[in-house]
């Protein structure tokens, strides 16, 4: 009987020891996992921040079409410019983003066709904030192309006259198409190339030699830009 009790006691002690060892091993696993995460800089709760900014040098190339009402054969042309552009993007998912494009430039307006003798009619500054919805392709490694489409509202300000007595180009809505790519150098920095087409046809009022006239300026510019990307 004593031997039986001794065996039970030894078995119980052995079982308790195994349970204690198992508990210590289980407790050690999270600590080891935390050590590995700390060493690699990873975090189980870490998620990419959805904001991105770009700074580009932008070439603005206009369509050079337009007319003055009631003057058959009249035409208009506009100067092309280079200007800086800032855009801010927010990623809803890895593939879907919205981009707000900010920049300002100017255009010299000249007469063509039957009003070519007017020369430089005037100069206007444009502020054309544009919002596009984009689809980003993410399965090509560091090369990340995208396409987009959106809306534009162009504000015309600081309007000066040349040969005209008065000039008023009216603010207007337009649409935009976009294609481009980022080439990411590392997790945050990349190079960007981007082409946008704005469909922009503002109306205008002009007074020449005392005669008040109206017309439409068909700018429809191409915006061709290159610069740097920073993903937060």
TrEMBL record:
Mention any one GO cellular component term assigned to this protein in its UniProt record.
outer membrane
* Stretch forming the signal peptide: 1-27
Q: Does the keyword Cell cycle apply?
A: no
Which Gene Ontology BP terms does the record give?
Answer: transmembrane transport
InterPro entries recorded: OMP/PagP_B-barrel, OMPW
Q: Which Pfam families match?
A: OmpW (PF03922)
Q: Where are the transmembrane segments?
A: none
Which top-rank group of organisms is this from? Bacteria
Sorted alphabetically, which keywords does the UniProt record give?
Signal
What family is this? Belongs to the OmpW/AlkL family.
User: Know the name of this protein?
Assistant: OmpW family protein
Lineage in the entry?
A: Bacteria, Pseudomonadati, Pseudomonadota, Alphaproteobacteria, Hyphomicrobiales
């Amino acid at each position: 009987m004593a031997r039986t009790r001794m065996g039970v006691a030894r078995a119980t002690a052995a079982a308790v020891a195994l349970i204690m060892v198992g508990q210590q091993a289980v407790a050690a696993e999270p600590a080891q996992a935390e050590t590995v995460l700390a060493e690699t800089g990873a975090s189980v709760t870490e998620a990419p921040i959805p904001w991105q900014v770009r700074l580009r040098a932008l070439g603005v190339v206009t369509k050079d079409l337009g007319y003055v009402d009631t003057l058959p054969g009249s035409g208009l042309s506009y100067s092309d410019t280079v200007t800086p552009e800032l855009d801010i993007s927010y990623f809803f998912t890895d593939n879907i983003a919205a981009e707000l494009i900010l920049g300002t430039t100017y255009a010299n307006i000249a007469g063509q066709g039957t009003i070519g003798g007017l020369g430089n009619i005037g100069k206007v500054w444009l502020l054309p904030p544009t919002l596009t919805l984009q689809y980003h392709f993410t399965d090509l490694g560091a090369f990340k192309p995208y396409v987009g489409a959106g809306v534009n509202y162009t504000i015309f300000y600081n309007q000066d006259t040349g040969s005209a007595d008065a000039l008023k180009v009216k603010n207007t809505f337009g649409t935009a198409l976009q294609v481009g790519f980022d080439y990411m150098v590392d997790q945050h920095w990349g190079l960007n190339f981007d082409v946008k087409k704005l469909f922009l046809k503002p109306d205008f009022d002009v007074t020449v030699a005392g005669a008040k006239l109206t017309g439409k300026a068909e700018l429809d510019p191409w915006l061709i830009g290159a610069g740097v990307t920073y993903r937060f």
